[in-house]
Design brief:
Order of helices and strands: EEHHHHHHHHHHHHEEEEHEEEEH
Largest sheet: 5 strands, mixed
Number of strands: 10
Shape: elongated
Number of helices: 14
Strand content: 5-15%
Length: about 375
Amino acid sequence: MKYLSEVSGPDSRVKGDKDSGRVSPLLSTEVFSRRLLDWFDVHGRHDLPWQHDRTAYRVWVSEIMLQQTQVATVIPYFERFMQRFPDVKALAEASQDEVLHLWTGLGYYARGRNLHKAARVVVEQHAGEFPTDSLDAMAALPGIGRSTAGAIIAQSTGRRAVILDGNVKRVLTRLHALEGWPGRPAVERELWHLAEHYTPEQRVVDFTQGMMDLGATLCRRGQPDCERCPFADVCVARARGEQKRFPESKPKKAIPLRHTRMLVLSDEAGRILLEQRPSQGLWGGLWGLPQFDSDAEIDAWLDTHAPGAERDEPWSSFVHVFSHFRLEITPVPARGGRVDGVAEGRLWYDPQAPESVGLAAPVKKLLASLAPFALSQPPSR
């Protein structure tokens, strides 16, 4: 390696945990931050929407949206969200339905529900001000963990706070060729030790953004651009030619396939009956089509709730993929019947004039496909 003089002296090795016995060479905090910031000043991202009027609220919303979601996808959602909810009080006063409606399409809907819960906690328990003077208080808010709390504090106040999101984990894991899946507690402890060591006291806003940008734009998961990386000469994974090996993947498990049948019950006006999902669990709090395990269950439900309704043959099944399982969905159309009013937790939805309610992604796609077609025919997909 070049620049061996830049490797720290007395504290130049991170002691591995007793299980792994790993040790890794360290750059000094000063050298690491100088290299990163020199790169960030020229190549970093400086014009993202949440970097303007940089408040704790705006940074928080962006950080939650960016969890497991690309920047390009987040930007239009963030801008619509800020237009409707310009501050935490406006968000806290909104209904969950309205929040989830604006979240529809971003996925991982627990993030939206927790965002709404956290806004109410900030208003009710912190007088509408984020507790940026306390990492523990920030991390205690719904949906905010240690790294997100650090990012909010660093980005909104400029005070030193350490982050360790997926991008930062990838950079540090490759730099030190850190063995093991980062989700393992022992590996995560080592990564926090490294992140703590490298985070400087000065220019923390740019440093934390630079770490995220480096992982997102150069130290990418599939195709790292090592030639342009400011740490190429001291990266252990690159020296071994093993960049793509790090970080190690989570041990794989077979992804199960589940099945459900969704009832597409329409009235004479072409409206579709929707039900609100329980607040916890799959698609929690969102509106969707009534779900069943079999046609017999559908028939029993129709006899009770829509006597006289005619069930048609099922439409073609399709698969919706989640992170931990796949769901095969079979739409089952039905029409008519005597539906006397709509119980709480149900509504009639007009695909031609959709309401502002949060919809599960496959349900939104299915309903959108119904709008231009007669309900006697399967929608084209």
